[in-house]
């Protein structure tokens, strides 16, 4: 999980203690709305940001990376090239359960729009598996229990045992992973500094890319671009490259009472209390 590695690296560099817990982005957004606490929100579903902004819960978000659903098969498989091939009677398929995981819900939405959902669901019911999460789908493909599965691209992009097959029916589900400062923040300076670290091409984004996430074009092309560009950033006067400071130095206090909430499907939801606790989304 990229956020886990980023947090660990940040802790080592700046002496900040962060405890990580997992949950769903939707549940965490509901929590933010009810308790009105938190400093940062990160999600991979644009609808969560639209809702947060519309309700006045968050500032404009900063794009980090992207993900999309794909077909995944064993590395040596040559029989699958698209959605229609999954309907072959000789092909066993695993999909996510729309009732229990984000990948299942998104798969159902996309393939309903393309007219492929009902045939695929019937085929899976007779000759396949519905799994609770994308992790479970990956597992049964690697175990050889099924021929193919549908998962998030970054989950398989660095796995030497698997091959990714993109198709137009699923490409429509591409979404960006973004981060935003929450309106409830009481530590906007520290929150922006951590967000800037997460969005730094040489720090957080490097970890996202290493773990298989696709960076957005402007980030890959312009590593000097300042990643935090929200109203909150302007208000808290985060140092720029001109003053040679992008993150807090080890001599600065680490006992921030800052709450960070992150949500992302495989990045599904996370809340972070600098120096106290961090809740991260399940891989679903």
Fold and architecture overview:
- This protein has 284 residues and is an alpha/beta fold.
- It is 36% helix and 20% strand.
- It has helices at residues 2-14, 25-35, 46-54, 102-114, 117-127, 134-142, 153-156, 168-171, 188-198, 204-210, 217-221, 231-236; strands at residues 20-23, 40-43, 62-67, 69-74, 93-96, 128-131, 148-152, 162-165, 175-181, 214-215, 259-262, 270-273, 278-281.
- It has an 8-stranded mixed sheet, with helices on both faces. A 5-stranded mixed sheet has the order 6-5-7-4-8.
- A hairpin with a 4-residue loop joins strand 12 (270-273) and strand 13 (278-281).
Strand residue percentage: 15-25%
Number of DSSP helices? Answer: 12
Query: What is the CATH architecture annotation of the largest domain?
Result: 3-Layer(aba) Sandwich
The CATH class assignment of the largest domain is: Alpha Beta
The biggest beta sheet is recorded as: 8 strands, mixed
Q: Low-confidence runs (pLDDT<50, min 5 residues)?
A: 221-282
Shape: globular
What is the CATH third-level topology name of the largest domain? D-Maltodextrin-Binding Protein, domain 2
Q: Please identify which CATH superfamily of the largest domain we are dealing with.
A: Periplasmic binding protein-like II
Distance between the termini: 12 Å
Which radius of gyration do the C-alpha atoms yield? 20 Å
Name the helicity range.
Answer: 25-40%
Mean pLDDT: 77
Structural class comes to alpha/beta
Integer tally of domains: 2
- Give the spatial strand order of the biggest sheet: 1-13-12-11-2-9-3-10
Say how many strands there are: 13
Instruction: Give helix and strand order, one letter per element, not per position.
Output: HEHEHEEEHHEHEHEHEHHEHHEEE
């Amino acid at each position: 999980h990229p956020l886990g590695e980023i947090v660990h690296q940040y802790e080592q560099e700046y002496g900040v203690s962060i405890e990580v817990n997992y949950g769903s982005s939707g549940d965490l957004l509901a929590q933010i709305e009810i308790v009105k606490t938190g400093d940062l929100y990160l999600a991979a579903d644009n609808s969560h940001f639209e809702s947060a902004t519309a309700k006045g819960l968050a500032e404009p978000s900063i794009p980090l990376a992207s993900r999309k659903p794909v077909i995944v098969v064993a590395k040596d498989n040559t029989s699958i090239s698209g959605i229609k091939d999954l309907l072959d009677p000789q092909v066993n398929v695993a999909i996510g359960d729309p009732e229990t995981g984000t990948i299942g819900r998104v798969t159902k939405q996309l393939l309903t729009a393309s007219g492929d959902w009902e045939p695929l669901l019937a085929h899976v019911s007779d000759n396949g598996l519905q799994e609770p999460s994308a992790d479970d789908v990956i597992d049964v493909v690697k175990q050889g229990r099924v021929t193919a599965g549908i998962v998030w691209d970054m989950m398989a992009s660095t796995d030497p045992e698997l091959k990714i097959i993109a198709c137009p029916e699923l490409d429509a589900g591409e979404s960006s992973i973004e981060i935003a400062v929450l309106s409830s923040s009481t530590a906007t300076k520290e929150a922006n500094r951590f967000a800037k670290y997460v969005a730094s091409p040489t720090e957080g984004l490097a970890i996202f890319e290493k773990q298989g996430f696709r960076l957005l074009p402007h980030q890959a092309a312009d590593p000097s671009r300042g990643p935090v560009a929200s109203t909150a950033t302007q208000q808290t006067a985060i140092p720029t490259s001109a003053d040679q400071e992008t993150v807090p130095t080890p001599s600065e206090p680490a006992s921030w009472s800052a709450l960070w909430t992150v949500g992302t499907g495989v990045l599904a939801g996370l809340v972070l209390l600098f120096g106290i606790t961090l809740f991260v989304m399940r891989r679903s």
